[in-house]
Specification:
The protein is an alpha/beta fold and 473 residues long. The chain has helices at 8-22, 38-51, 63-75, 100-103, 127-136, 178-183, 212-219, 222-235, 248-260, 274-286, 319-327, 347-351, 421-436, 440-449, 455-472; strands at 28-31, 56-60, 81-83, 95-99, 115-118, 149-154, 171-174, 190-194, 205-206, 209-210, 241-244, 265-269, 291-295, 309-312, 339-343, 378-380, 387-389, 416-418. The strands form four sheets. A seven-stranded parallel sheet has the order 3-4-2-5-6-1-7.
Length: 473
């Protein structure tokens, strides 16, 4: 077994995690941005565990993540088994790399491990994960004497549905910010361009995010698609790019627009087979593709450092989707000077810059109260005057309701670069103000001044983080 030497920040994270375990926590969340080296840190933790005779499972929901982890384990000379469709795992090995969807159906074939490492841990409140935790006696809800410890890994410890990670974790262990890694040349600098925000007034909210059908209709106008091609040609010509689209049809349409403009473009989605997805990724790596337009893919588990441009054509209310998609282009690569973000969806106006500091918590998000209904729940037939649910397309009398077109106004103009200098100075001031505050009352006062909805919760989180750092020292 090769000894892996962690970078200073990774070593500090490992020390903080061990300190959390010593203090009695059983399920910490290591928060680390793209490029930190979460996998390398996990390998170090695995090495330490197996040296003590412990059994370890590394679990995730994507084969790309598991394949990368397996390669890293092999490079470190750590024997391991696979638990996935068509593979039953080598039961003799102390380390198993497991696909969550397969593992949950095969728990009776294995002995519980001593440590379960969960990648993309913001997904871990799902029922499949929690079945595994309950079986292993792990996590706040299911821990029992002799049960497994958990180690959660994520860059974004929050969920679109508002559920808190406190269901499966008991402490947050922060590491550093995206800007810290950029300053240390471990990530590519960001140049962010955003146009006028699309008019989404006719797009309703469903399940906490934009209604995907209505959103596709709004975003798939030729003028918007054309704008993406034109701005790519002007600002990012020649850079391997990934475009995040709303639906499969939208991705296909955008790819066709790029091809008509002379670019080598391909559309992929969650419906694409493994061979097709691998070919798209390889095309970006070897330069045989200019643009890959994707839907419901590549927000995690993608290792293509050559990607130099992210094109956002899918508005989202999820900071997780936003940060994960941007992160696909931030890795460094020979000859790569920066990463261009072409945000045609106005996501930066919803979530701020990727380098902004964010306050995370294990608590569930406060449910928002809608000030008005998003749409009329019923409608009346103009022929027979019958009343029916708004989603009905044909009345019993034979009248067909024509869909109401949702036009999107396109504002001519150039993408404007959003610089970080002013924001960086503001963040510096905010951090200094926060650092001078010694009491919970002081922090609550700052939180209220910043317009936070729950300043008391934020203040307690800041104080807990301070105490955790002091205890780790």
């Amino acid at each position: 077994m090769k000894i892996i030497t962690p970078r200073p920040r990774q070593e500090k994270a490992i020390e903080d995690l061990r300190a959390a375990y010593r203090r009695g926590f059983k399920a910490p969340v290591m928060i680390a941005p793209t490029g930190f080296g979460k996998s390398a840190t996990a390998i170090c933790m695995i090495q330490s565990a197996i040296e003590k005779g412990k059994r370890v499972w590394f679990i995730a929901h994507l084969k790309e993540i598991l394949r990368d982890t397996s390669h890293r384990l092999t490079d470190a000379d750590i024997p391991h088994g696979w638990i996935a469709a068509g593979q039953d795992g080598n039961h003799r090995q102390a380390v198993q790399v497991a696909m969550v969807q397969t593992l949950v159906r095969r728990l009776d074939r294995f002995q519980p491990p001593d440590l379960i490492i969960v990648d993309e841990a913001h997904l871990a409140v799902a029922n499949t994960y929690q079945q595994i935790f309950e079986w292993a006696g792990a996590g706040p809800k299911f821990k029992r004497p002799g049960g497994a410890h958990l180690l959660h890994l994520t860059a974004t410890p929050c969920r679109l549905d508002g559920r808190g990670l406190g269901e499966v974790a008991d402490i947050l262990v922060p590491t550093c910010s995206t800007q810290d890694l950029i300053d240390e040349a471990l990530l590519a600098p960001i140049r962010y361009y955003a146009p006028s925000e699309p008019d989404l007034s006719g797009v309703h909210t469903s399940m906490g995010d934009f209604n995907q059908g209505e959103l596709a209709e709004a975003m798939d106008k030729p003028v918007i698609t054309g704008s993406a091609v034109q701005h790519y040609r002007k600002l990012a010509h020649g850079r391997p790019a990934v475009a995040f689209c709303v639906t499969v049809e939208h991705a296909n349409n955008v790819a066709e627009q790029f091809r008509q403009a002379g670019y080598r473009a391909l559309a992929i989605s969650g419906e694409s087979g493994g061979t097709e997805r691998d070919a798209a990724l390889q095309g970006l790596r070897d330069g045989s593709l200019d643009v890959v337009c994707n839907c419901a893919l590549w927000v995690a588990g993608v290792d293509a450092p050559s990607i130099g441009c992210i094109i956002q054509l899918a508005p989202t209310q999820s900071v997780v989707k936003y940060l994960q998609s941007v992160g696909r282009g931030l890795r460094t690569y020979p000859g790569k000077t920066d990463c261009l973000i072409l945000d045609h969806a106005g996501n930066v106006k919803r979530h701020g810059l990727p380098t902004d500091l964010r306050e995370w918590t294990l608590e569930p998000a406060e449910k928002k109260k809608s000030s008005k209904k998003s749409e009329v729940p019923v409608k009346t037939c103009p022929v027979c005057f019958a009343t029916m649910p708004s989603e009905v397309t044909d009345c019993s009398c034979g009248h067909h309701f024509e869909p109401v077109a949702r036009e999107i106004e396109h504002v001519d103009g150039e993408l404007e670069e959003i610089t970080t200098a002013a924001k960086a100075e503001a963040v510096k001031t905010r951090k200094a103000e926060q650092g001078r505050s010694q009491t919970e009352a002081d922090l609550i006062r700052i939180g209220r001044a910043r317009g936070m909805k729950r300043p008391e919760l934020w203040a307690r989180h800041v104080l807990r983080a301070r105490h955790a750092k002091e205890a780790a020292r």
